[in-house]
Amino acid sequence: MNRTIVETIAAALKVFESRKMSALLFLGIASGLPLFLTSRTLQAWMTLEGLNLAAIGLFSLVSLPYSLKFLWSPLLDRFAPPFLGRRRGWLAITQVCLVGAIALMALQRPEQTLQLLAINALAIAFFSATQDIAADAYRTDVLEPLEMGAGAAVFVLGYRLALLITGSFALILADQLSWPIVYLLMAGLMLLGVAATGWAPEPTHPGQPPASLTQAIVLPFQEFCQRLGGLRTFSVLLFIVLFKLGDALVNNMATPFLLKIGFSQTDIGAIQGGMGLVATIVGTLVGGGLLSKLGINRSLWLFGGLQALSNFAYLGLSLLGPNYAFMVLTINVENFCAGLGTAAFVAFLMSLCNHRFSATQYALLSSLMAVSRDVLVAPAGWLAAQVGWSLFFALSVVMALPGLLLLPVFAPWNQLHPIAAITDMPPAPPRNEP
Q: Is residue 358 part of a domain?
């Protein structure tokens, strides 16, 4: 296991020699930067301003654009800005808008104007979701087939580093500075994304945009459904919604839970936002290394099961109370297992995309993934208040099971790849390998 980790990390570091990979690292940072600024970090600010748990839980609805971004993703395939090409042009537009929207959060006062705060956070989520569409499309276009695995890993690494900044560094700063100043600093960091977009290389084979908006909308969905078939399409889409549900319930309430039982912002920033995100990065790298040997199907079974079981750690912490050592263990175990699950899940989503329509198809699939994180978890605060923390975390394990029960339909254990997956890109091991 140790050898696998070292080899995986060494391979990830080696690709930094490529300008293409370095650009993807910074674009990953730009993609991840807004997420916690409208979710976990914002929840900490709202909790300290005295807002109730129900209001904090409902605020996850401001992230609805992440779930609906497939609705406008064909526009980014069909139309090209008059500068920087079709992919980088849209990246630059959304990143400039994000700089302004994040800076505007410095003017908000959660305890006085909750509606304005929600509108501002919704704008950040919209521009962030649109940036994600452009970034996924750029990553698909710029990478050669043999580079796709490394490119995805580098992008995820940048994304996780951004979560480390906004989930750890921002909370620690908030103990020393005001929250408006923290958001201004995060807006300044977003300028790195604009610079990376300008520096990033243009795809060698950018591809022709669809001839009409109708083609950009219809063909990706038509091809996906025809390839999988009706029943399997429904099972796959339902699985995508449910696979991360148990993990999303815990993530939605983890910060309020830790604050309520007595841990400080600095404790949470250093452990949850710091060590926890490092554990997620390590879990993602380890998962990526193991996945090449296990195949996508078995990785979904194994890593999904560990992801569900890791929620029992939070159940144990709720019974023990503010035990610092157990809090460290809980956060690291849960985040490491979540990283394993993410590695398998991202590989699964990529395997389902026809590269003629990867921007729209990936946007659709990742939007469905966001449903559990942003919509189904909205009552989480109310549920925790009604049943108590211990039963809430036990229920989060139960809610992780329905997704796993769908795996035999399209990802049987005795096959390497999901049924109807596109297995020729990136290359898969031959079927006769153990």
A: yes
Phi, psi of 112 (to 5 degrees): -115, -45
Q: Is the residue at 416 inside a domain?
A: no
Phi-psi region of 200 (alpha: psi -120 to 50; beta: other; left: phi over 0): beta
Q: Report the first-to-last Cα separation within the chain, whole angstroms.
A: 18
pLDDT value of position 298: 87
For the chain, what is the domain count?
1
- CATH number of the domain bearing residue 42: 1.20.1250.20
Structural domain contains residue 340:
yes
- Rounded Cα–Cα distance for residues 333 and 276 (Å): 8
Confidence of residue 191 (pLDDT cuts 50, 70, 90): very high
418 in any annotated domain? no
Dump the DSSP string for 181-242.
HHHHHHHHHHHHHHHHHHHSPPPSS--PPPSSHHHHHHHHHHHHHHHH-HHHHHHHHHHHHH
Its pTM stands at: 0.71
**Rounded Cα–Cα distance for residues 17 and 262 (Å):** 45
Domain that holds residue 244: 8-202+209-410
